[in-house]
Write a structure and sequence with these properties.
Elements (H helix, E strand, L loop, with lengths): L1 H8 L15 H18 L1 H11 L22 H20 L6 H7 L4 E7 L2 E3 L14 E6 L11 E2 L17 E2 L17 H6 L1 H5 L5 H20 L2 H8 L1 E3 L5 E4 L15 E4 L8 H12 L4 E4 L11 H18 L4 E4 L6 H13 L42 H7 L4 H12 L11 H18 L1
Parallel strand pairs: 1-3, 7-10, 8-9, 8-10
Antiparallel strand pairs: 1-2, 4-5, 6-7
């Protein structure tokens, strides 16, 4: 949970000064995550400064608490001081990275300083200023809850720092339990309660005093009711929730349902399927559409296994998929990239495309050089003209010879050299790194939010 929060807000974080005195590997990971979250909270210093510069608030009236607060049971006084000395430089790095893609909007949203509170073993953990985090009216709260199973002993048991845990109950006086990956494994403890379902009914959870059994019963009841309602709204859900537009591009990411024929052709002109499965009627639907209306639609499958079962095929097929996107985006076609759920391989393909053809900027747009990407020059012996099925790889619009060439052992190098040539790059430097990819991803999200 820490990583998801911090990766969204602080993508320029690095490992320098990340708590070298801590030796327990689980404690080190938790403490490092606390540092990352602390940078996110300290970001309010920049927000406050920006609002003053805009003239929205009087500098003399601003009394935000922007000091660092960490759980005293995990972070020692010495460690706390080390983190404090690093944060201002981290915030400046964040600002210089341009990861804050719409600063005015951020300043409007963050009207109070951010403050994180930590809950482990069912108990609130005091921070470096006792009970200061409980003043809810002064802060926007980020609640960090440890979902690990409580059990004594074992390698995942993390001890408290001595003499720093006043008020801890006897059941938790020896520390807490940390199971790596527990926060990601919400299927085992979340009882199928989605964030959307919670925020549709927050008063049911937050207003009355509930026991643990009451909460479980309430969740089960809401989930069951939601599933019953969904039976009668599958078509509406599929139309509005199985696809997402990427920034200002004519490009969408979606689940397998978004690519179901023949309805998919009402929304798209070209579809890239990044799964091993395909609808049996997908190719026939293209031919039927062309016969009825003389309209040309295109389809390409990247036969890539889901998740960790794939080791090499996504990388092998990536040049083919990216060439397909470039070709049809240049023609102004509406393009869908889908995998099973729209959260895995489709995102990877689109992120690679964005890294190649979109400059760092807001809103997310194609580069000025994009139209100069000449797919015909990618393979000199290209068979066919790409306008008929003769020499075409199924219904993709790409020639069979080009696809076969890109799938060869040197296909990736061929594609990268061609990409650098059309990007006006004089050296074969990486087109993107981890930080720039995160920034581009964030800008795509911001563009979507602005449109909706």
């Amino acid at each position: 949970m820490f990583n998801e929060v911090s990766s969204e807000i602080t993508p320029t974080d690095n490992e320098n000064g990340s708590g070298k005195k801590l030796t327990n590997r689980h404690k080190r990971k938790i403490a490092y995550s606390i540092k990352r979250l602390a940078v996110a909270c300290k970001q309010t210093v920049w927000v406050m400064r920006y609002r003053v510069e805009l003239g929205e608030v009087d500098a003399l009236d601003v009394e935000w608490d922007v000091e660092l607060h960490t759980p005293a049971c995990i972070v020692s006084e010495e460690e706390h001081e080390q983190i404090s000395q690093l944060i201002d430089s981290r915030v400046e790095l964040l600002y210089q990275s341009k990861a804050i893609v719409e600063p005015r909007r951020l300043a409007q949203l963050v009207i109070k300083p951010l403050r994180a509170v930590w809950i482990a073993n069912g108990s609130f953990q005091n921070d470096t200023e006792i009970a200061s985090s409980t003043k809810k009216d002064q802060y926007l709260m980020i609640i960090c809850c440890n979902p690990s199973t409580y059990k004594e002993g074992g390698k995942n048991h993390v001890q408290w720092i001595d003499n720093k845990c006043k008020g801890i109950t006897s059941s938790t006086e020896h520390g807490y339990y940390y199971t790596p990956g527990a926060a990601d494994d919400d299927a085992t403890w979340g009882r199928r309660l989605s964030p959307e379902l919670f925020w549709t009914n927050p008063q049911l959870f937050l207003v009355p005093p509930l026991t643990d059994d009451d909460v479980d019963g309430l969740i089960d009841s809401l989930v069951q009711q939601h599933q019953s309602d969904s039976i009668f709204s599958d078509d509406l859900h599929s139309r509005h929730h199985n696809m997402n537009k990427i920034g200002h591009l004519n490009l969408w990411i979606g689940s397998r349902t978004a690519g179901r024929p023949p309805d998919c052709w009402d929304n798209f002109d070209a579809i890239l399927n990044a799964t091993e499965n395909e609808y049996p009627a997908i190719l026939d639907s293209i031919s039927e559409l062309h016969t009825k209306s003389q309209r040309s639609c295109f389809y390409l499958q990247l036969p890539v296994a889901e998740g960790k079962r794939d080791k090499t095929e996504l990388e092998r097929w990536m040049p083919v998929g990216l060439t397909y996107l470039i070709l049809h985006m240049q023609q102004g076609r509406r393009v869908l990239v889908h995998c099973a759920q729209g959260k895995d391989r489709s995102v990877g393909v689109v992120l690679a495309f964005v890294a190649i053809v979109c400059p760092l900027g807001y809103p997310l747009r194609l580069s000025e050089e994009f139209d100069s990407f000449d797919v015909g020059s990618l393979h000199a012996t290209n068979e066919g003209d790409g306008k008929s099925e003769i020499g075409m790889h199924f219904q993709s619009g790409l020639s069979t010879s080009l696809v076969n060439s890109l799938l060869k052992e040197d296909g990736r190098d061929l594609f990268l050299q061609w990409t650098h040539q059309h990007s006006n790059s004089t050296t074969l430097e990486p087109l993107a790194n981890k930080d720039s990819l995160r920034i581009r991803e964030r800008r795509a999200d911001e563009s979507n939010d602005a449109e909706t």
